[in-house]
Amino acid sequence: MPINDLPPEILLEIVQWLDYASEMNSLACTNSTFYTLLNTMLYTKYSQTDDQFPLRWAASRGSDLAVRKLLAAGVEPSLEAMLLAITFGHDSVIALLHEAGVNINAEGKFSLDRDDYLDAAYMDSEESTTTALARAVWVGDERVMRLLLELGANTDCAKCSDYHRRTPMKAAARLGNASVIKLLIEAQRKGECPDLVNQLRHCLDRAASADDYASVQILLDAGATPGRFRISDHCHVDVGDSNGNFEVTQLLFQNGYIPTIKQLHNAMCNGKVEKLRLLMQWVDFPNLADDECSRAIVLASAGVCGNIPLVRDLVVSRGWNMNRPRIVTGRGRVRLMAEGTPPRRHPGFPLVWAALYGQFHVVQFLLTQGANPSPQAIHHRHEEISSLAAAIRGGNADIVSLLLDHGADPNTFHGGQPVLVAAIRNEHIFKILLDRGADLDIQTCSDNPLSSAVVKSGTAGVARLMCERGVNFDHPTVIADGGCDRGEYIGSFATACA
Predict the structure, then answer these.
(1) How far apart are CA 411 and CA 395, in angstroms?
(2) Does 350 have pLDDT greater than 70?
(3) Alpha-carbon separation of residue 459 from 440, 470, 485 (angstroms)
């Protein structure tokens, strides 16, 4: 006899032997007869266990009917089920769970199991503590957010589901969701949030660092005032650098933001000349910190930008020092160092920066005003370089000649290496240094002859110049240091040129 033809009493007797609700659910799915018979019993069975999976499953799939039946059967409503409904945008389920007693402002653990849920696109971490509103911010569903706000979600105290526990508005600023930011601002104003000014301040910081023009504009319109607080130095440094678009930076400046000294330094160190020019337009000279470090960075920035009138004004009219002592910066403090103490990091001398960026006329002006062309190191890309080494690195032969004319030493060292090593790949500059008295017998940092460095680089033109001045490339040390094949080749070439 087919199982469908059995009397209901016998079917119910079969069900009594099933220990788990999942087994009963599998049987109910076999045919309509079992489904009709077991449907109510199944929900009751779930209510007698602590298993929250059915409610989570129904909430994640937006099944209003299943959620209603589970709640009616006595299944305990949970915040996790509401968070899943928020994640997948089921506003009707959210309303049902709130009506059933879920505290919309409570914090709870939230996780998405990839085996249980087909769509795990919104998973931030395996398990996070969050609230309903915070979860909605991360999902970015404006419709769900409006519902939560109508139900009384707290916009001030809610935390977001990430390690840093950002408030909803900070998270929206980080995610670049301008419409959500606007919605949260309106909600906080209706609730008379006492911390709104501080919230706007921090959100402006995050939105600007994310290069989000729309969010920055909304925050400024809401009353965020960039000119009345010091935005953290690590932010805004790279705003617009990825595509050369500085609209966000311009917008901040037009609303009263003042660039920091560290931002000037970072732009200069990272080669962002166009950004540096933009920053220099808004430097607050009247309120500039009265210390040698700040002045040196501003003067060096003006030189890198090639702004001769500003350099002249700072040096001649204001009397700023071009040959300041070494200064170390750290944790916002600037202190002078005793002579001879190796600095950990310092912004360096304006002459060196101008030479590095090939600003010939700035270098010329600084030298005529008494800038010292002798070794003055700056910290650039994890090493210290002098003005002469900077000009060599920039490949500017005119600046190299200008520095040598004003007394720069062609036998100076940078980073433990003679400057001749830096010029090995530029035959023209190498010849200028030789003509100005550079010593070909100078040793490299590894105590090898200069010719070994030439062998390693494989620059035959420089080898010819050295050969013409009597350098022997057949020396065993040269061949051993440069590799046998290349050493023999250049050695034979140099010998033939002699």
Answers:
(1) 18
(2) yes
(3) 16, 17, 15
